[in-house]
Amino acid sequence: MKGRPDNTVILHWDECRMLWAKLSWHDWVCFRGYGAGRQSLLAGAQAGEHYFLVCVLGNCGELANVIPHKYVLSADARLVHGFDGLEDAERQEFCRLDGLLSPTIEDSERYHELDARSFTVNLPPTHTVQPLLRDMPGLAGAQPGAACWQFLSAIGISCSSARAN
């Protein structure tokens, strides 16, 4: 995680205030353990499950992609566990399949199955969707066919409903 992409916005679900708050790139890098000291810490965060969205914006500020993350934090605000929904053997299989130069059709199907499960387990709860419509950057400008629609459709937002807001 070198540098700070100008086109990335990190959102963190704040359960107490019932809103998606922007998290600085520096705080995100520190939380993920890539900062100085390699400690996974999110200052001021409560213990428990936390949801984050990495929102990648296009050249004109439109939403291009969304990568959901779910983590468990300890009482001292340290990252305890990240979720991918896979058992150890499945995770190893997923990594092996990802590294194949010429996967078979069966390999590709299995990879997509594991990838979909990994994606789904990180989706935020349904009660966070309405506030997300207000807080997500570039949503109204999201282009049909953009990668963000995988996430948006998974949480129940269609192209027409995004344009209406």
Report on the architecture of this protein.
A 5-stranded antiparallel β-sheet has the order 2-1-3-4-5. With 165 residues, it is an alpha+beta fold. It is globular. 33% of the residues lie in helices and 22% in strands. The protein folds into 2 domains: 1-83 and 122-157, no CATH class; 85-121. Strand 3 (48-57) and strand 4 (63-73) form a beta hairpin. The two termini are 33 Å apart. It has helices at 25-31, 88-98, 105-120, 129-135, 148-154, 159-164, and strands at 8-14, 19-23, 48-57, 63-73, 79-82.
SSE layout and pairing:
Layout: E1 8-14, E2 19-23, H1 25-31, E3 48-57, E4 63-73, E5 79-82, H2 88-98, H3 105-120, H4 129-135, H5 148-154, H6 159-164
Antiparallel strand pairs: 1-2, 1-3, 3-4, 4-5
Provide tags for this entry:
about 160 residues; alpha+beta; 2 domains; five-stranded antiparallel β-sheet; 6 helices; about 35% helix; globular
What is this entry, summarized?
It is built from 6 helices and 5 strands. It is of the alpha+beta class. The protein folds into 2 domains: 1-83 and 122-157, no CATH class; 85-121.
Main β-sheet, in a few words? 5 strands, antiparallel
Poorly predicted tracts of residues: none
- Number of DSSP strands? 5
In total, the number of domains comes to: 2
Pattern of helices and strands: EEHEEEHHHHH
Overall mean pLDDT stands at 84
The number of distinct helices, counting runs of at least 4 residues, comes to 6
